[in-house]
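Input chain follows. Return structure tokens only.
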Amino acid sequence: MDRAYAIALNAFREAVRDRVLFGVLGLALASLLFGTSLAWLSVNEHSRVLIDHGIVTISWLANLVAIFLGASFLYKEVELRTLYVILAKPVARWQFVLGRYLGIVATAVVFVSLTSSALLVLLDFVVAESHGTGSSMVERLRGSRSTRALILSLATIGGALALLALSKLKALDKLRAATSGAGLLLGSTALLALVATISNGVAPQETAFVLMSSAMVVLEVCVTAALATLVSSFSTPFVTGALTLGFFLIGRSTGAILELKGRQLPPEVMSAIKLVPEVFPNLHLFVPNRQALSLAFGWSPLLSFIAGLAVYSIAHAALFVGAAALLFRRRDLT
């Protein structure tokens, strides 16, 4: 697993340096800002409009990032001839596939964390303005003891990582190499935790919905990235992107397929259509549902629901990545 982790770390570093990723991140932030203008067009549903628009934006763009990275994970290595150098070392092909897949998922987690943090910041200001209380986030940064304690903890962790990065002890080379790549991942999730802590004092219901929706987006991305990895193991980047996007759209449509009444379709056609959710992963399950993510019945049913989705996501991701490893193992690279 150390080799797979090293490959994942390298894939993550390559992905976060890609200009396309920064372009998608900028597009997401611009869309979230546009969502604030849509929120003020509504009468009494400012926060709901902003959150719904923001979650849709984060979900679609996060999956597009996973498809883009998954479609090119093998093509770049072959074109740059770096794959032959990696496989010449004691690295199994399944470790290479698993490492690249984990790198894609880590990149998606950073993307979702940053965009969700921006959404919570905008939510805080929208809620504060709608209640006429001004910038409540600034007030809570100054007045909340729990927030100050969390900031102090994050500052301590950041200082420790900085000292580790500046240290020249050779004994810490391995740990320093790991934290240099994982620092962005840890920092983005810590930023989301900090912003959520502040926003929870302003809009607890909306904050919980955003956090649970973000978790569902990450679980969906795990399946989408696994699909892209599977197709990429035997195809070209363009075909991989097209097929994975098609699978993603079909998976998102399974909810509508299951609700078809069949009054205007022959029974044979309906039987064939009903087989689609059994063949393709039902990605409609990961679309945020306000009733399912409501805190009206407490945290226990909500966490049980997310745990069930996690099992579903991990099972499909393991199946697709395992199939990708088998196909890549039989692929002739000469």
